[in-house]
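Progress note, sequence design subtask.
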């Protein structure tokens, strides 16, 4: 007799391997939980390390999960989120930002993207634009965050535009996660970002060299990756303060916030010069990015108001 799918719980045949895989997926997809190491997954699910490792490895191979190359933390991947998005209503923020991101890219002639907040401490690249003549392999090499292959933790000092307008308590909590030596600089940087309306990302030569070395390590323990991540943070020169913007300066990205009705930053529109620029050019690009982000904010707030008035 051929078995058929039934709603009758008594008639179904249990599948423990499937149940174990679903448990891991549910855990990774829970946005209230920070990305976990394999040891965390073993502890939370009660599965053996070998079983959890096999499940996670297959999820990563299928792009349903991703592993942070620095910290070893595992998070839900683009394969899963793409599938979920295909059966979910369109995200109004993304729909409103898409044409403006394309217009910004066409105007500036540089890559642009939208970072969408998916949880209090996680963002993901939702839209990315490239020059049509940019080689595909150069994109992942020069600007790896534009691949959208993994969620990005809002760990200091990155993505300051998501915290420059946060409450003092939220800023304090975020800054407290940084090494003590960087906290004063972070607080000054958040004030500078809020004053001018956009963040400016820059990296030192030492940072780039160490990142290249880390990427070549292959396997490393979670504790080692965590310690190396702290070193990377310490090597980062955080943003530009007002009196530091003069002459020519190296700029990786310039990001401006997109707000909801409550004034919370729910996304950011980001341009990627990835070059040394004259200060006047940085200011011009920053103003253009901020104006485009403000347009998305206004459109989104207007959309919410129209819905409420119906």
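Output:
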């Amino acid at each position: 007799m051929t078995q058929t799918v039934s709603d009758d719980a008594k008639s179904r045949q249990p599948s423990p391997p499937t149940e174990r895989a679903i448990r891991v997926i549910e855990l990774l997809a829970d946005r209230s939980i920070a990305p976990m190491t394999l040891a965390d997954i073993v502890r939370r699910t009660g599965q053996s390390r070998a079983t959890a490792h096999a499940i996670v490895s297959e999820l990563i191979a299928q792009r349903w999960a991703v592993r942070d190359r620095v910290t070893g933390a595992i998070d839900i991947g683009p394969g899963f989120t793409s599938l979920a998005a295909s059966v979910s209503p369109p995200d109004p923020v993304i729909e409103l930002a898409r044409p403006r991101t394309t217009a910004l890219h066409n105007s500036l002639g540089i890559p642009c993207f939208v970072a969408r907040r998916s949880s209090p401490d996680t963002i993901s690249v939702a839209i990315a634009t490239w020059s049509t003549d940019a080689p595909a392999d150069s994109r992942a090499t020069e600007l790896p965050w534009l691949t959208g292959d993994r969620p990005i933790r809002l760990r200091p000092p990155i993505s300051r535009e998501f915290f420059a307008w946060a409450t003092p308590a939220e800023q304090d909590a975020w800054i407290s996660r940084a090494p003590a030596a960087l906290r004063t600089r972070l607080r000054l940087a958040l004030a500078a970002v809020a004053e001018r309306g956009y963040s400016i990302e820059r990296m030192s030569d030492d940072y780039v060299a160490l990142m290249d070395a880390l990427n070549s390590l292959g396997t490393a323990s979670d504790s080692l990756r965590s310690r190396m991540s702290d070193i990377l943070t310490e090597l980062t020169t955080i943003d530009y303060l007002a009196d530091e913007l003069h002459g020519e300066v190296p700029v990786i990205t310039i990001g401006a916030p997109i707000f909801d009705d409550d004034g919370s930053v729910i996304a950011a529109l980001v341009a990627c010069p990835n070059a040394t620029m004259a200060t006047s050019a940085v200011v011009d690009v920053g103003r253009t990015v901020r104006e485009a982000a403000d347009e998305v904010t206004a459109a989104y707030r207007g959309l919410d108001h129209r819905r409420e008035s119906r």
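The longest strand covers residues 112-119. Work on this subtask will continue into the next period as scheduled.
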